[in-house]
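Ticket opened by: R.M.
Priority: normal
Category: complex prediction / small molecule

The reporter submitted a protein together with pyridoxal-5'-phosphate and asked that the result be attached to this ticket for the collaborator who will pick it up next week. Submitted input follows.
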Amino acid sequence: MRPTRAEILLDAIAHNLSVVKNAAAGRKILAVVKADAYGHGVVPVARRLQAEGVDGFGVALAEEGIELREAGIDRTILVLNGINGGAHREIIAAGLTPVLYEVSEASAFERVSGGRPIDIHLKVDTGMGRLGVPLAELSAFLRDLRRFPSIRIAGLMTHLSTADADRPYVAEQLAGFAQARGLVRRFGHEPSVLHVANSAALFRHPESHFDWVRVGLALYGYPGSDTVDPPLRPALRWRTEVLRLRILQAGESVGYGRSFRARKETRLATIPVGYGDGLLRSASNRGQVLIAGARCPIVGNVAMDLTTVDVSGVADVAIGDEVLLLGEQGGAALDARDLATAAGTIPYEVLTNVSRRVPRVYLNG
Ligand SMILES: Cc1ncc(COP(=O)(O)O)c(C=O)c1O
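Result attached by the on-call engineer:
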């Protein structure tokens, strides 16, 4: 196996679920495991979460839900992004719960269900501006939906755009959600579950908790907001090993484009990881790695398979020494927030970007 691999700490995910449960104070937990469980590998992660008693799963795509069913996941699976590409029959056959916000989709479901009732979750757009029925169109939508009596609104949801930041806008969205709830009731529907909160809202906005919370990032170890600090543990440890060592003399450069030139004699380690593995190229000359518990700066441009780091500050570095891009080593830690800040992005992108070329190794304990 390559020395470059992602170790997935399943006990950390179980621990994070217990932190989430605590914060949710009795609400049901829908674990968001789209995009291969944010890069952690969906099947082992979902199996562990199911064994730990999670109530359901959220995926973006029907294909992701079907993969979970084939792996033996038997809880509710909500297809958050609605139906892309006409997978209505497959969604019903796999027992997935669709999110709906287009009347044409209701019609397609009724056609393939042969009149059997179908439970859907209605998504309303209270201010994210992407998916969902806009509030202004909700009455017309509900009127149209009467033509499809087999469609039952089992759940009502919306998605917050500033749960990590702008409190007044969250309040506006929640007011819109209350309005939507009133309208849905007036049309004779009584959804049994309401849900709004993502990770940041779980920790910052108890008023958004309702019946379910839909939590992704927190399960992988990050709260989704810099203003809260729950005791979560990052679940992905990204490691590699020193491949080669060399000395740059003052004035010499390293890598494509010569973006780093040594001002003085500099000891470099080359590591076998690059943007082909998902290390963002924007971390060039900005990111850091851990070697022997010391932070070593990335110098030069990250290439497809190789990256160079300055190890001048670390005594006795040898070929084969462990290098961490993410994780804890010798009392020091680097996490996806550090790498995201260096690369000008967010932890979600750092984690989902770790590519298929990086083997995932699942560890308990
Ligand atoms: C509709 C919906 N709900 C919940 C989540 C989970 O968000 P987070 O990972 O911030 O908890 C997502 C993820 O983007 C989402 O798209």
